[in-house]
Amino acid sequence: MNKALEGIRILDFSHLLQGPFATQLLGDMGADVIKIERAGAGDMFRGMTFFAKWVGGSESPNFLAWNRNKRSIALNLKSRKVHAIIMEMAQTADVVVQNFRPGVLARLGYGYEDFKAVNPGIIYCSGSGYGEEGPYVERPGQDMLIQGLCGLIANTGRGDQAPVPVGAGLADQIGAMNMVYGILSALYYREKTGKGQKIEVNLLAGLLAHLNQEYVAVLNLGEDFVRPNSGIGHPGMQAPFGIYETRDGGYISIAMSPFKALYQVLQAPQLAVYDDLKTLFDQRDEVFGKVNAETRKFATQDLLARLLAVDIWCAEVKDIRRAAEDPQVMHMGMITSYEHPRGGKVRVVGPAVKMSETPATIERPAPLVGQHGREILAELGLSSQEIAALEACGDMTVDMA
């Protein structure tokens, strides 16, 4: 089967979420991703989990989520012998990805200039929290911290309660998409010119860019967003934009829709007095409460059917387990699985992008620490004796199921 990125080799020094998600996306499209992990410990995400539980008793769901379609080699990056090996690997690599704190890899001899010296066409993608210079360069750049700093958390939640972070690693995931966007652009530019380059991606810039409409509104309209007490779905929106209760304990989200159509479906003509854009904004908490009182008279599926019949933008609010069983999600085949040597059958979300000629596929499960080290070094031309010597002195570790 053809692969869009077949023949592209990536040296992946990244850890946690941002970099690993980016390289997984590229691996799904056929790139040969060599994950270079710390000897012994591996990626930091291997030691983190949710619910204080482990897949198959030992594997992190966090790591399994972002590291399929990769080969792992676990090396001591401080070793001069290892440095020479990686620079040899770089001669035939196309891309380097890393998201250590600014300057850390460069001090070990793995900065952009080091790779460029052995491969002028290399594309070096560096991810960070706040960029590689400036007053915050030494700060830890973690997802929730970035959400708070850029204004996203301040916009989320009810006005009479503390602001609420998004329930997913949004900054990291947007950062990963920006890495892929930059890498693919650089590969296309190199195809035309033969020139490599350095790409810098940071979490703060990524979230700022994705909040552009909010920034344009505040910076140009002279208004600040204020979270409504009712939980309207966006602090700049009027009612009924938000989440509403139903009789059977469920919830329905209602987005931009003609208010008249809504109160007619709800059989609540008394709401007609609010049917004006400014009124729906100025009195949005009051409107929310009155609409919510009406939606609680209906069972979830009955109300959904009534709203959809008149083309009101709505959807049921589902938790993750029920969303995985949603008929549209099942139709798209988005929940799939792979066999892991320790975790067993691991259910995962499949590739989101569909391509007619070069479809994305899952060829490899997330690797064990250094699982492919011997294989990768043998491809590089090292003898079995040289590989054994690296293992013996602790410069490389290999974990096999």
UniProtKB/TrEMBL annotation:
The keyword Transferase applies. One of its GO terms (molecular function) is CoA-transferase activity. It comes from the Bacteria. Keywords: Transferase. Gene3D superfamilies: Crotonobetainyl-coa:carnitine coa-transferase, domain 1, formyl-coa transferase, domain 3. This is L-carnitine dehydratase/bile acid-inducible protein F. Transmembrane segments: none annotated.
